[in-house]
Amino acid sequence: MMDLITIETEFIKLDQLMKFASMVQSGGEAKQLIGQGLVLVNGEICTQRGKKIRSGDIVEFDGQSCCIK
Q1: 16 neighbors 53 (Cβ within 8 angstroms)
Q2: Contacts of 22 (CB under 8 A, 6+ apart)
Q3: Distance CA 27, CA 15 (A)
Q4: CA angle, corner 25, sides to 59 and 43, nearest 5?
Q5: Residue 52 and residue 48: Cα distance in Å, rounded?
Q6: Per-residue pLDDT of the chain (69 residues; tens, 9 = 90+)
Q7: What pLDDT sits at residue 2?
Q8: Positive/negative CA dihedral, 62, 47, 68, 13
Q9: Beta pairing, strands 64-68 & 2-5
Q10: CA distance 13 to 17
């Protein structure tokens, strides 16, 4: 199941999105998982925790996925 996440800004950073979408419990956990290459952005491994996620982007981790609208 894919969650739709609405943001009011132009973008949100990947680590912040993971916390906002309840994919992780803390920013530190997000940083660690992203650094280990366990997070996909638009189907590709992303190791940049500060990557800007914009409308239409899909983030996937551990069977969870969310799309920014």
Answers
A1: no
A2: none
A3: 6
A4: 15
A5: 9
A6: 789 999 999 999 999 999 999 999 999 999 999 999 999 999 999 999 999 999 999 999 999 999 998
A7: 86
A8: positive
A9: parallel
A10: 6
pTM exceeds 0.90, yes or no:
yes
Q: How far is it, in rounded angstroms, from Cα 16 to Cα 6? A: 13
Question: Tokens 């969650």 identify what position?
Answer: 3
Q: Tell me, what amino acid is at 48?
A: Q
Residue entry with tokens 């940049």 = 48
In three-state form (DSSP H/G/I as H, E/B as E, the rest C), the secondary structure along the chain is: CEEEECCCCCCEEHHHHHHHCCCCCCHHHHHHHHHCCCCEECCEECCCCCCEECCCCEEEECCEEEEEC
pLDDT of residue 26: 95
Two tokens, residue 54 = 């914009």
